């Protein structure tokens, strides 16, 4: 009988950081259970946590460096792999310049602190300015709003949902996603608590989501018209009386400019744009303003769209003018143990934005990253600065970036591609060299990013539980060693734990939180509810809070002249959806997560389905300017008329990946259009894509 041991660690798959109790025998996981004493998740987990063990033992996992020879991958040694990578990267750069090698970083990096700490060094060693990541298919509008209003991309307002009386959710489905830029495990319970204390939760979404069901109050909205709604709410509030800036009053600039800017956004005009009637908009605005504590939270639905930046700006502005910014129960700022904002402070530094523009189509660059929407054209378009080689680290843009198959075709034309990944998948199969990554249970766990986005301040650390297979180096070390090979350095830097030990005492909790204390305590530690602190945190060069940055005001004419993107040929607006048992494109190889019916369906409103002759469960063809896909129809009144939904993250075409579903699935990004962006931030505008629908 083997002895059972226990480790407390947080799950790193999504942003929720659920506390887990992992029982193991030193070799294998015996069980993964929720930790009822975790100060943040208090016993919540989702089905994906249990699958953490599957990612380790996945028979399709890449566990040896693989080099493509004559079309097939062959195992090679680590030494040969590092040599090959460095040689090929430098050869491409010698022929075509430093920027001819691009880097794409995927979402899992944000959940792996060893990667977060070492990737900047790798990019520096490569010496390229051509950086891409999944952020520009996700949340860059939030950062752009934060930069222009508050001075730092990561000074991010987080809804204080545990103390609010009125939660307005625009374009988020946290009951399924468990919150994004709002780490809040057990979202349903937290929403129920708002209602139990007499508060309200209102959801604005073109789909009556799982979150909308649980909230009870929901309004359909025409896709991409959210900025109209929020600006109209501000219009009503500022017409009714003076703004309530509260303790921020001495810091705020631009109130008059905001009041002037929202004038055209009358509820009547907004009703036309959004499909929500004027009386409802007025009541929503007045109830929001009258609530003792209220917060507007706008997420994916309101950032991956043509007006993403205006939405994020307007949501912040609504919270500010109602006294709900940096205030209890409103939008607040975390004080994490590792203070990323402080470590990268921009105080007193004058910068101009956007930092640069892309070579081919002039899209803006923020946070040092070009929009992923421009990746294909930057590979395809000849000339100085053309991308000739690509390094991907934990990214799958063929399935996750707009017009993914165009990217796939472009990858075929590269001189060299290197992927650090755990699978041969739709993206990495185009690589010449694949380096194996390590999975969560083989790595120490500290969440550098999501403690900064959490609805409560907590901190946790757990050491690696198992050794990587075949004596492989941990992933951070692969990154560090590759960088060293490129620069010729004969050693790599400190371990992630050494860096953490050094940085923690510099954070908000000083000597109270050290790595040694976290290690000996075992469980995550509660650091208390969020506290008002913006007065000392503002990072703008002039130290002011900018309520009406000129760049946003200049974009308003585009919003005012917005027309419905749907046409006679393509009369439906396509939106995406997330599902409880998958995470983006990479968890679909866990049999326990994909078993059951095919969940990759197109959801259609009953009236639309009847008109088109679509039957529930039968196949439909969905067509956009980029391509067409065929998938089963699911008829549901959850969809607004004229809007259809396909889940993101499916369409694995390679080998066994995703094969556990027994059915072929499709990628929504075979349909999405890389020319649709939010021009202010360059973020992909996935939502509201015009499509046609026919029975197959
Ligand atoms: N249409 C549409 N498109 C979307 C979205 C949408 O809602 N609609 N959502 C967008 C969003 S929010 C995001 S964040 C992006 C995600 O876009 P990506 O980050 O490109 O995609 P992921 O599916 O997260 O892919 C992660 C990759 O990392 C690999 N991987 C997983 N774990 C590890 C690990 O531990 N180490 C290493 N080295 N590799 C690992 C997987 O095999 C996979 O190749 O997709 C975006 N795309
Ligand atoms: N189970 C699970 N959880 C996840 C993920 C996952 O893949 N699976 N991915 C993680 C990642 S990377 C992220 S970024 C987060 C995202 O977390 P969320 O922001 O909660 O993401 P979604 O569930 O995509 O919710 C977006 C919502 O916007 C709606 N929507 C679409 N277009 C519009 C529009 O024009 N206006 C409005 N108002 N709404 C619109 C959609 O119907 C959908 O309900 O989730 C994370 N958590
Ligand atoms: S909600 Fe997210 S963090 Fe929590 S168990 Fe599920 S995947 Fe892990
Ligand atoms: Mo994301």
UniProtKB/TrEMBL annotation:
One Pfam family, short name: Molydop_binding
Residue span, 4Fe-4S Mo/W bis-MGD-type domain: 1-60
Cross-referenced InterPro entries: Asp_de-COase-like_dom_sf, MoPterin_dinucl-bd_dom, Mopterin_OxRdtase, Mopterin_OxRdtase_4Fe-4S_dom, Prok_molybdopt-oxidoreductase
Annotated keywords: 4Fe-4S, Iron, Iron-sulfur, Metal-binding, Oxidoreductase
Gene Ontology CC: membrane; oxidoreductase complex
Record carries keyword Iron: yes
Any single biological process term in GO: cellular respiration
Statement: the UniProt record of this protein carries the keyword Cell inner membrane: no
GO terms assigned for molecular function: 4 iron, 4 sulfur cluster binding; metal ion binding; molybdopterin cofactor binding; oxidoreductase activity
Xref: CDD domains: MopB_1 (cd02762), MopB_CT_1 (cd02782)
Coiled-coil positions: none
Superkingdom, natural source: Bacteria
Name the record gives this protein: Anaerobic selenocysteine-containing dehydrogenase
Organism: Ruegeria marina
């Amino acid at each position: 009988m083997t002895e059972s041991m226990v480790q407390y660690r947080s799950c790193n798959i999504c942003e929720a950081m659920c506390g887990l109790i992992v029982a193991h025998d030193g070799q294998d996981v015996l069980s993964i259970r929720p930790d009822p004493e975790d100060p943040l998740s208090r016993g919540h987990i989702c089905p994906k946590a249990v699958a953490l063990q599957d990612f380790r033992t996945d028979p399709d996992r890449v566990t040896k460096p693989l080099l493509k020879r004559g079309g097939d991958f062959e195992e090679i040694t680590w030494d040969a792999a590092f040599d090959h990578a460095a040689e090929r990267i430098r050869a491409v750069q010698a022929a075509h310049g430093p920027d001819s090698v691009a880097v794409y970083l995927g979402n899992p990096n944000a959940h792996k602190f060893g990667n977060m700490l070492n990737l900047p060094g790798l990019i520096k060693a490569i010496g390229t300015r051509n950086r891409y990541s999944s952020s520009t298919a996700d949340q860059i509008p939030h950062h752009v709003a934060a930069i222009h209003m508050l001075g730092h991309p990561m000074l991010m307002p987080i809804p204080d949902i545990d103390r609010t009386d009125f939660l307005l959710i625009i374009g988020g489905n946290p009951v399924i996603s468990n919150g994004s830029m709002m780490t809040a495990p057990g979202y349903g319970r937290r929403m129920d608590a708002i209602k139990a204390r007499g508060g309200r939760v209102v959801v604005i979404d073109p789909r009556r989501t799982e979150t909308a069901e649980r909230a009870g109050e929901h309004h359909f909205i025409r896709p991409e018209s959210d900025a109209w709604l929020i600006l109209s709410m501000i219009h009503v509030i500022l017409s009714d009386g003076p703004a309530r800036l509260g303790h921020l009053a001495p810091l705020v600039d631009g109130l008059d400019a905001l009041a002037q800017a929202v004038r055209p956004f009358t509820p009547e005009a907004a009703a036309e744009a959004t499909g929500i009637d004027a009386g409802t908009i007025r009541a929503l605005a007045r109830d929001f303003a009258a609530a003792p504590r209220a917060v507007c939270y706008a997420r994916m639905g309101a950032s991956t769209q043509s007006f993403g930046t205006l939405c994020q700006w307007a949501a912040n502005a609504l919270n500010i003018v109602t006294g709900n910014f940096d205030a209890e129960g409103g939008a607040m700022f975390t004080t994490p143990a590792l203070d990323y904002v402080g470590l990268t402070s921009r105080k007193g530094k004058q910068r101009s934005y956007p930092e640069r523009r892309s070579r081919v189509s002039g899209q803006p660059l923020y946070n040092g990253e070009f929009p992923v929407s421009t990746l294909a054209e930057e590979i395809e378009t000849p000339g100085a600065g053309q991308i000739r080689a690509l390094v991907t680290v934990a990214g799958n843009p063929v399935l996750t970036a707009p017009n993914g198959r165009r990217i796939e075709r472009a990858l075929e034309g590269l001189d060299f591609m290197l992927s650090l990944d755990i699978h041969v998948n739709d993206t990495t199969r185009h690589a010449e060299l694949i380096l194996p990554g390590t999975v969560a249970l083989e790595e120490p766990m500290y969440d550098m990013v999501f403690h900064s986005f959490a609805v409560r301040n907590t901190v946790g650390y757990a050491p690696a539980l198992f050794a990587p297979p075949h004596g492989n180096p941990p992933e951070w070390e692969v990154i560090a060693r590759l960088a060293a090979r490129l620069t010729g350095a004969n050693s790599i830097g400190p371990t992630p734990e050494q860096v953490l030990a050094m940085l923690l005492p510099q954070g908000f909790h000083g000597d109270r939180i050290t790595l040694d204390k976290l290690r000996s305590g075992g469980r995550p530690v509660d650091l208390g509810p969020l506290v008002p602190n913006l007065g000392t945190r503002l990072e703008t060069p002039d130290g002011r809070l900018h309520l009406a940055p000129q760049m946003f005001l200049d974009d308003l004419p585009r919003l005012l002249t917005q027309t419905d993107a749907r046409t006679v040929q393509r009369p439906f607006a396509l939106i995406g959806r997330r599902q409880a048992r998958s995470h983006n494109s990479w968890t679909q190889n866990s049999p326990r997560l994909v078993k059951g019916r095919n969940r990759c369906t197109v959801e259609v409103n009953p009236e639309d389905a009847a008109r088109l002759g679509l039957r529930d469960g039968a196949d439909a063809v969905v067509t956009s300017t980029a391509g067409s896909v065929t998938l089963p129809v699911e008829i549901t009144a959850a969809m607004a008329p004229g809007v259809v939904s396909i889940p993101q993250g499916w369409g694995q075409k390679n080998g066994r990946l995703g094969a556990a579903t027994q059915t072929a699935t499709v990628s929504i990004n075979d349909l999405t259009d890389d020319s649709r962006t939010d021009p202010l931030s360059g973020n992909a505008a996935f939502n509201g894509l015009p499509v046609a629908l026919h029975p197959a």
